[in-house]
## 1
Amino acid sequence: MLVTNKELLLPAMQKGYAVGAFNIQNLESLLAVVEAAVEEKSPVIVAVTPSSIKYGGLAYLTKIVRTAAESAPVPMSLHLDHGKDFETVSKCVEAGFTSVMIDGSFLKFEENIALTKRVVDLAHAKGVSVEAELGRLAGVEESTVEEREAVLTDPDSAKEFVEQTGVDTLAVAIGTSHGAYKFKGEAKLDFERLRLIRERVNIPLVLHGASSVPQWIIQKAVKYGAELAGAKGIPEEHIKKAISLGISKINIDTDLRLAFTATIREVLSTKPKEFDPRKILGPAKEAMKEVVKSKMRLFGSSGKA
Ligand code: TD3
Ligand code: ZN
């Protein structure tokens, strides 16, 4: 069934588990996520970014996700991930998304509040949930430790931001980053900061950039020709700790991409005579599905549908 993020995340916050938001771009990735949720009896968030909308088309993606949700025996939402402006958000609300993120994290505090508030007014009028972001996810290459810390979410500002905007969920920055290269040295998250934010804010909190970049997938990809030297993610124990400290929604994209493309590489190089797309993308979808299922078990959402 099709629901909003708020409906998925309030029970998660109360019971202490997290719901995964998995990015999809095409039919195969959608099937992987939905089949995983059904097999795990897990609630799930299907996430679509503006660049995926550009790739797959808003109408196509909305229709396939809503079609899946309407017949699925588990609750699912269709969520816009990293909506950058009011126009993108309103198009998605209009198209039938049940949840939107407005990412004003690059704006000044007051401007982020103003933009988020406009989105909240629009979305709530249509029964759509809103996620906003305060603080920024620093990149690994371009920033020093000091620069990374400077952009993490300030707990007092988070409280003020939530009160002033009326947003449903808040993405916080505690040291994660997007992509396959999150840390040069040891993975480090600011758990004390998360604890302080949780003390001051009583809506579901969201962790972006949460992929673990499993070494076994990297090794498989490299075995079949990928170049991924230095890829490193968030250890699974850190994810568990973040959930215990109050994270209720966890975004995963990179691990799914890695699993999918490592398997495509494997099939193409072990079966050089194969040219049926279904025989190449099918195994890739299965590999992605296994990763989604393992995330659902890690997050504690398995069996919660
Ligand atoms: O919002 N997202 C997914 C889209 C970002 C582009 O990859 C995330 O926070 C996912 O983070 P990760 O760790 O999977 O890159
Ligand atoms: Zn993100």
Note: The chain is about 50% helix and 15% strand.
## 2
Amino acid sequence: MTTSKIEHIVIVGGGTAGWMTAAAMANRLPQSLCRITLIESDAIGTVGVGESTIPHIRQFNETLGIDEATFVKETHATLKLGIKFNDWGKIGDSYFHPFGEHGEITQGIDFHQYWLKARKLGEPYGLEQYSLAAMAAFAGKFPLSTQHKPTVFADYTYSYHIDASAYAVFLRDYAVQRGVKRVEGKVVEVKQHANKFIQSITLENGETISADLFIDCSGFRALLIDKTLKTPYLDWSHWLPTDSAVAVPCERTANLQPYTQATARVSGWQWQIPLQHRIGNGHVFTSAFTSEQQATDILLSSLPGKALAEPKVLRFKAGRRQYSWQKNCVAIGLSSGFLEPLESTSIYLIQLGVSKLLELFPDKHFRQAEIDEYNRSISQQYELIRNFIILHFHVTTRNDSPFWDYCGNMAIPDELQHLLSLFAESGRTDIGQFGVWPAVCIGQNIIPKYYDARLDNITEDQISGLMTDQRSKIAAMTHTFPQANDYIAELLARGIP
Ligand code: FAD
């Protein structure tokens, strides 16, 4: 009897995208009904970077039943409470973009509005002094979330720095144990049906593998979605001009900070990501404005420890595939798009890609309305994140190089322009946007002209009392938190269940 159910899925690529997809599918799709095969090529390898994550990864692990101690041990993870940005608005500035909210949302009015009013009244404290995550991060501490719920700071959350290659290996074991078949080999040919749906792939050794659904996780090569289906790539490099990175790990320092550092450089920016056994470093730059040698020299001269490998150069182009899902092929990971790593969002986009696919899981009819819905929601997320990243580069008074001149003066997407003007006027934000806008805007010196008019009903004494109260609560709570490194050590000592 013929069935319309998808019986065989082939995933091409075994990087972070391939193994996250395989693991999530193995967890959710009954193997008795649907076989999953993943093909990866040891000769080609993976992109081998991608170490900073956002809190959604915890939800991914929870869904897969991966406990925190195992994850932290297997991926050499450290805690991440946010990102410290240095030299962005202008040289010498720094600010913290925390996961979660600042202060308390009182009477439905965002906390940064109270901060704005307090500032107009002469209050000297920065916005980050009202972020539990920021203050804990600067003290090297970890706010155990269970300890302070349901207090005013319950919206705080956290993530990790991970060895992404180790995460892929861990997920490979997870997926293979749950029935995913791993095939090592290089795909050299892709055959299509008359209607252009993908029929099979052929490996270098001559083996041909057919399937109903193909997932393209082949990275920048985009073997199926681009080379076979010719899906156009929407180029966003006029808004995000960085196109290269040089990366090198170095020896770890004694104290590992529970945050990522992103330091603006003359033609790009540099990351510093602490893991248990090393620190990941990279310099993202724009080849139109600087050479590979200059970028490497800047990176190597500012490492916090001794380099542990030769610098590795990567090239990319910001943008996204016009359709991540075409016919019977879904692109997940770098094959579906690339937004530069400033806000550590790529692994999140992989997670989103696979969870949306499971939500809209097709049968062999491949209904166009479901495909359209997938493409709509993925492209929407890409665009929200893109705008948030552009914001960091555009909102600057730096004019010390052609790169910063370009970023400060470039035309930006209309929606972003509107939201920036709105914030600059009255500090209002759109809850549907991605990221924590007040932290970044205020951190890069956009101080709104006016605060929320509803705060005119609150007296100066009330505002001042509220701000003092919040600062002292944060100070008291931070005092009780464990050191972030002790929390990691405790997880490691707990061992794998
Ligand atoms: P890849 O890792 O390139 O894997 C591709 C796979 O396809 C490999 O297994 C390869 O063998 C296989 N393959 C290709 N061609 C063939 C073929 N012909 N036959 C068989 N197999 C084939 N993300 C974050 O979330 N946080 C970060 O901090 C971060 N930093 C980054 C920094 C830089 C400079 C860059 C470039 C990216 C960064 N990313 C980050 C993104 C992150 O690295 C990727 O999203 C992630 O690694 C997923 O990559 P991938 O699996 O799509 O591709």
Note: The chain has 16 helices and 21 strands.
## 3
Amino acid sequence: MQKNILVTGGAGYVGSHVIVSLLERGYGAVSVDNFRNASPEVYGRLRELSGKDFAAAGADACDAEAMARVMRTHDIGAVIHCAGYKSVPESIQKPLEYYENNLGSTIALCKAMRETGVTRLVFSSSATVYGESKVLPYTEEHPTGNCASPYGMSKVMNERILTDAAAAYPGWGVVLLRYFNPIGAHPSGRIGDAPGGVPGNIMPYLLKVATGKLPVLPITGGDYDTPDGTGLRDYLHICDLAEGHVAALQYLETFTGTETVNLGTGRATSVREIVRAMEKAIGKPLPTEIKPRRPGDIAEMRADPAKAKRLLGWEARRSLDEMCADSWRWASRNPAG
Ligand code: UD1
């Protein structure tokens, strides 16, 4: 019988959608979450919308002994490591907490894997590991490490820790998934992104404007060297992203070593275009105003997704309109998040 998959951060935005994809594909899932940035209510919703059950442990991914216990108790065959702090501005205010949590969880998981004989891991990395590049799109060969924030550096360091571990321990297989800009929500409208406070990323901000909680979207930079002057990003649907993790797991059935794979669509969308797509999804205009650029922002990020297709047989299928419609369904049905 197939072993279970341990998902860290399983109540979070990415982890919860990964659990849906796993259950849909017939995997057994075990979630670990400390609920520091997520709600336990997500689990009930996941069971409802998938019609399937899964195990959950209220442990901290930074606790190696607890992780080893979970791996033994639940007959874990592989880990999908999504847990982590993820706010860029907060990471600049709290670098030590970010490094402690984001590196500590990876080290603890690796120790627990070594102790229990688990050899497969998929890691939530980010396109933020790439510094600014004049050459587009971004392939996995682009230089990394020139990150402006402790959040970004924690991803770079985690990639290195996992690469070194996979080289040192026989039979280990690791896939580092570099996400571009995941947005959207499960089409059921039951789970989605629920950041606290004033959102830093564009989609949660747009949703707060759409629900009247914030008056206007600041467009952070209208003078970039792009067709409409606003920043271009490679937005992908969270459900496509989640399916990329299952594809990586399948790849790991026969692969040992470390592979790095971009998850993106290969298409760039401007801030103005995403605002228009959201207006279409909502059916009303959304107020915007041009503001200064955010420090450290760049004009364009766009993935070369060819390796994901070649290696994992994965490509993003869902459109920008679906991303916006699904985001809106989630936000309008769950005004409290
Ligand atoms: C950000 C993070 C990145 C992280 C990713 C997760 C930074 C510098 N980078 O990427 O590390 O992995 O989120 O999704 O924070 N924008 C506005 N108004 C806003 C917010 C954003 O116009 O209120 C614009 C930005 O200038 C940018 C685009 O929208 O052009 C996307 O911004 P955002 O959603 O914050 O994502 P990134 O900055 O690409």
Note: The chain has eleven helices and 13 strands.
